[in-house]
Amino acid sequence: IVTGALVSFMDITEKKLLEQRLIYQEKMAEIGAMVAGIVHEINNPLDILVSGLDCLDLETSAEGKITCTATDIHQIREQALRISQIIKRLLTFFKDQPVDMLPLDLNAILENVLFALKHTHRHKDILFIKELDPSLPPVLGSKIDLERLFTNLLNNAIEAIPEKGVVEIESNLENSTDRIQVKISDSGRGIPREVKEKIFEPFFSTKTSYSSLGLGLFFCSQIVKMHHGQIEIESELQKGTTVTVTLPCLKEPNQSNGGKQ
Q1: Which of 97, 158, 161, 247 is within CB 3.0–4.6 Å of 229 for a Cys-Cys bond?
Q2: CB neighbours (10 Å) of residue 49?
Q3: Which DSSP helix (H) or strand (E) runs through 30?
Q4: Residues 93, 202: Cα–Cα separation, whole Å
Q5: Which domain holds residue 118?
């Protein structure tokens, strides 16, 4: 015989609202991180462009005539075009659309990127050491993406140095693997272990000065992956960082079939 019953009611409206609010906050955080990453990508060539315009302003003669060189004009035009290309490329990047891959001179890309960044960071006392193997074969790649890759890596190396230091850029061919290796080293402050472990994660950020580095390296890792390469980082606090990018070289047609006709 049932003599009584206990009925309980729970208002879940507040719980659902809280869950929806948390989901919304997570989505907004992801969007914010993505926007920060895009701004970071565009800011590099924009800084170079502004730096070039500043140089033109400084080179104005006493008569009021601009005494710029053809190289100055070329660099300004190149960086303006890069901004346009980066925006278009980012749209295809997130849509996972196919990219045109062409034979490219990796040393030429490194030279152009370094030349532009030297102007941007001319206020720093940095010694740039280049050891580029002139006999490198071409790589099959996307020019705008490889420019973004090495602009980010070189910019990070330069920014890791407070005022005075050394940045080394080295390229060579690994004969045993037919892969091209590019090393970018700096004598800067180094990367903490806890940051290094998460540095390639998408939307990784911290409240330290390494936040933009994490966002930039996420894009770098995706570009290297797209080119079937590898990227590795070695770092020691107060001694510096070395980033190594390894990419497959473009073999000649007669190499792929062992030289047979």
Answers
A1: 247
A2: 21
A3: helix 13-58
A4: 14
A5: 98-254
Report DSSP state, residue 249. B
Q: What is the pLDDT of residue 55?
A: 61
Does residue 89 lie in a domain region? no
Name the token pair of 256: 């792929």
End-to-end Cα, the chain, rounded Å: 97
Measured distance CA(159)–CA(38) in Å, rounded = 19
Supply the CATH number for residue 184's domain: 3.30.565.10
Question: Collapsing DSSP states into helix, strand and coil, what is residue 29?
Answer: helix
Question: CA nearest 167: which of 179, 158, 155, 159?
Answer: 158
Q: Is residue 23 part of a domain?
A: no
**Per the domain annotation, does 232 fall within a domain?**
yes
The reported pLDDT for the residue numbered 85 is 64
Its pTM surpasses 0.85: no
Q: Is residue 127 part of a domain?
A: yes
Our count of domains for the chain comes to 1
**Model confidence band, residue 129 (pLDDT cutoffs 50, 70, 90):** very high
